[in-house]
Structure prediction request, 996 residues.
Amino acid sequence: MWASFICWWTQDQAEQFFRSGHTNNWAVLVCTSRFWFNYRHVANTLSVYRSVKRLGIPDSHIVLMLADDMACNPRNPKPATVFSHKNMELNVYGDDVEVDYRSYEVTVENFLRVLTGRIPPSTPRSKRLLSDDRSNILIYMTGHGGNGFLKFQDSEEITNIELADAFEQMWQKRRYNELLFIIDTCQGASMYERFYSPNIMALASSQVGEDSLSHQPDPAIGVHLMDRYTFYVLEFLEEINPDSQTNMNDLFQVCPKSLCVSTPGHRTDLFQRDPKNVLITDFFGSVRKVEITTETISLQRDSGIMESSHEEGQRDEELMEPLKYAEQLPVAQIIHQKPKLKDWHPPGGFILGLWALIIMVFFKTYGIKHMKFIF
Amino acid sequence: MGLLSDPVRRRALARLVLRLNAPLCVLSYVAGITWFLALAFPPLTQRTYMSENAMGSTMVEEQFVGGDRARGFARDFAAHRRKSGALPVAWLERTMQSVGLEVYTQSFSRQLPFPDETHERYMVSGTNVYGILRAPRAASTESLVLTVPCSSDSTNNQAVGLLLALAAHFRGQIYWAKDIIFLVTEHDLLGTEAWLEAYHDVNVTGIQSSPLQGRAGAIQAAVALELSSDVVTSLDVAVEGLNGQLPNLDLLNLFQTFCQKGGLLCTLQGKLQSQDWTSLDGPLQGLQTLLLMVLRQASGRPHGPHGLFLRYRVEALTLRGINSFRQYKYDLVAVGKTLEGMFRKLNHLLERLHQSFFLYLLPALSRFVSIGLYMPAAGFLLLVLGLKALELWMQLHEAGVGLEETGGGSGPSALHPPAQGVGLTSLVAPLLISQAMGVALYILPVLGQHVATQHFPVAEAEAVVLTLLAIYAAGLALPHSTHWVVSPQAPDRGWMALKLVALIYLALQLGCIALTNFSLGFLLAATMVPTAAVTKPHGPRPLYAALLVLTSPAATLLGSLFLWRELQEAPLSLAEGWQLFLTALAQGVLEHYTYGALLFPLLALGLYPCWLLFWNVLFWK
Prediction:
């Protein structure tokens, strides 16, 4: 009886082993603003980069897009460093940062090409997102944004519709298993409103109509060092290590309104799994699943694992049907109007005939000499 | 038919306009003056705010501690200056080099059109000394300037000392993205003008300056410092520049933020800032400050080196340290920290200051009135001129129509050409003669000063001023002489045509002036418009003549001098006022030749002939 219990237990663990569907992790970290007074956006992105590296995702699986004019800016009193805390404890720039898209290469076109994989053949490998259908991707964006758009480097914008379409292209090209989208800008929640592809979970630092505020003003450097939401997310992530069992529900509680002043939001309706079953390390870390057992486990083909995956497949199909291509420009939703009742117009030919009749009668009655009063 | 093409309706409309015209004019004038006085009160003033994103909301911490070093430099400078009598150029060069700057000098010379009595100079030659602190990690494309004007009568020793100590402190920092130029000029504003002209490679004022050897890129902002004592009780800021130009409001906001941060007492126009804007005290004090600013801006003088920088679209301020009898004093470290903070913030700029207002009025250091809110005052005043011109046009046309009707069936063409023909010739003569008087007023005083000194026992400056006044007064005798030129059969209505032309001319001039220098435009409009509107040959001539003389440009200048001193709580007696008036006239002419100030030519060539036209209208026969 004891042996059968252990057998059941290891089988259960083995089943749990394959619980999440991903086998590799990627991260795309984007800072969309440049100039010295946007120091905090670069510090935000680099802090997330540090955490993600610490939890195991290697540089080869991170696409880092930065304006990168902070560390070597002539105004930086501490050259070659970027600090995220005014205690200057941690230089998040470090000496092993690998920026893949720097300075003017951070454009909307490059970002979308990275996501969708439509990249010219000459692009180096470090600039590509080589994900497959078993990849969990973390996408973190920060910068200046508004209702429905995110500003890229003072010259262009990406709209929430373009972003949603890019994610749909990724889904159709089987470029991700699950996607976690975090955005820290003003009115960030507007950016995830239009997503319609499955398996996407989104978090934003503020709702539509709210501004995300900055944190940590540093008089020695003369700029704000971090944004509030990312600061508290980072505090939260500092306590995560590769074997943490903390789940997404805890991440949703990070930075309540009392600390953040804005109201962070999240969206989970497109996600298949329950957020409480999703580990933080599913997205932020690259956990190699290695378990050492002294028992041999026979993985049954038609029970346990295959069944669960078949069930998942069925669930997938069931869930996939209701999903359809969202309306590209739902005007009624945007303008919040009731559709107007169209008035009935008589058909065109009838009107033409009526006017011809009127003109004929006019000339018949008054004669042709009255033409000069008209022309 | 249309309203304007139907003769019956048109006559009715004309009668309506003529009936309502006088009350409308009075109402409009009163509205204009009231609007102006209301500018200091809360709905029309707003709190200032920082518009430039790059200068941001974070404060920087200042680390300047070189107060003793500054005082040491100041003492050395004073000693060397006493010894050499002029600017100790060699000492300055040595000291700037020891502090670590790239040092260059520039010599300049200028012969003034006539000797300057206030500064006691005639043939001026001097040397400017400037040191450039290069940005350690940036290309030298942009620069900031800290300048101290030195002249023989104003001792600015402590300012030079502070400049050198700040240069030493700045040299040790690595966060500069723009070059910083530390400029010490001789003969204060003349030196500054020479340096600026050589820097920008232009020659606007005829000063001879040697070309600059060292250059640092486009100047983004400049701060001028005048300090004459080791401790100060307050810092006064001057914003009005040459021809009434103003720096971008963001620069003033920057200064004010640092005043608040350092707890410094900062004044505007020499007046303390009232904190209480909810009751009536604050706005009333604001009104005094506003009037002072209007008077200073209208004079068009550069009230400090910053005024000359503004012409090249370099935002600049002048800070003056005032040492009064207050108890709480600030030392050089406090002033140095303010300057350090300002320069550090200006260092963050990526573009020129352009986000905030360029045209504004300041009732207080933390309140401003934007152009959109103060322009209606000038608009109402000019409306009076427009209404009067419209009335005259209708009266002239009615007179023409009346002649038509009495002329009967014979076509109107027989009567029109004579009426119009006489109108034109009777207009051209007064116009030409008035303009010629204006040209004489502009050219003759400076041209004829040597002739005058030969025949009369006066100095050149006095000769210029007295010639000016003489030609001005001679214009009053014109109407008696122009009648020789005008054809004797000038019709009775000819004065209407002349007044119409004069009103339009005045409105055009005042309108154009008000756009660039609102204060000057408003001041002249407030005095000239009512008398211009009521002047006519019929009625009490002595009264109208007195009114017209009292509102002529020269009398406005005299009156505003009295008002200015009254507002500064140092009222003048009549004799003192007259002396000040003569000095102001001399300074006005001189500044036109040395800096290109436009008040003198505007008044001589533009407003004085216009006023003479009204004088001609008054004495029409």
User: Anything to note?
Assistant: The first strand of chain A starts at residue 24 and ends at 31. Chain A touches chain B at residues 35-37, 72-77, 79, 217-220, 222-224 (CB under 8 Å).
